[in-house]
Structures are given as structure tokens and as C-alpha cells.
Amino acid sequence: MMADGKGGRPPKPTSLKVLHGNPGKRKINRNEPQPVVSDDTPKPPRYLGRYAKTEWRRVVPELHRLGLLSVVDRAALEAYCEAYHDWREAKLALDEEGRTYKTDTGYIRPRPEIKFAAEAVKTMKAFMGEFGLTPSARSRISVPEPQEADPFE
Fold first, then answer.
1. 62, 104, 116, 123: which could join 90 in a potential S-S bond, CB 3.0 to 4.6 Å?
2. Cβ distance 14 to 22 under 8 Å?
3. What is the pLDDT of residues 23-62, one digit of tens each?
């Protein structure tokens, strides 16, 4: 159940409704808060892991260029990048150690990194949809062409 006491799917932000063209023709909240989009592309925080910083540097410039990254989105973006880092670390461990291990009693068990990787991918997918980082999510977003300045204004 959601914090406001209402069940069901969380509402889509107005900016995404506008970008998607509002196909359901639902009422658009004209009073929705509009966070500031920074003029500068945000740099990755120092405390992010190595792979998280790499992912930040890969996706943030494009999200910023498209105007899809406001100053209040930073924590969600950090969480996405950290999930990516966790997935990469687990994947590397699986590549090096294999997918199973032998216990002290001789049983073959799946490595715990399999579960860690799966959980990280689940977290990544949730954030990827929020930021339009998958082909499916992007297909529902329409970014308007930048308007050329009128030289006579």
C-alpha cells in the first residue's frame, strides 16, 4: 500500500505524461512541482563505487542533455548506479569463481553472487524505467525538438 493510503500503481509524473502524449487522456496536474534542471551536468559523487561512477559518466550526460534529470533526481540516479556496480561485482565474481561451490560436507551449492546479481538487476530495471534507460521506456517518451530562437524577438 502506498503512503497516501491508496493502493495500485503510483501515478506517472506529469512531465512523462506530456512526453508520452497522454494517450489515456487523463487529467494533467498543472500544479505539479517542477524541480530545477541544473545547467551543469552533475559529476558522480566520490563515494560511488568504481563501476557506479563509470555508469554515471555513461548515462548522466545524455539524461541531462534530454532534460530528464533534475536536481532532486540525484538519489535515485545514485541508487541505480550503485545497483549497476553491485551487479558488475557479482558478475565478475561468478565469472572468476563459477556459478557453484562445494561445501565442507561435499554438497554442490549455487554461489550467493547469483542472488546478489539477480537482486541488483531487479533494482536496476526499476530505475531504468523511471529514467527511460531501456528501448521500451524510451518508446513511450517524446522529447520535443528544441525551438530555434526567433532573430526578430
1. 116
2. no
3. 667 777 666 667 777 788 899 999 999 999 999 999 999 9
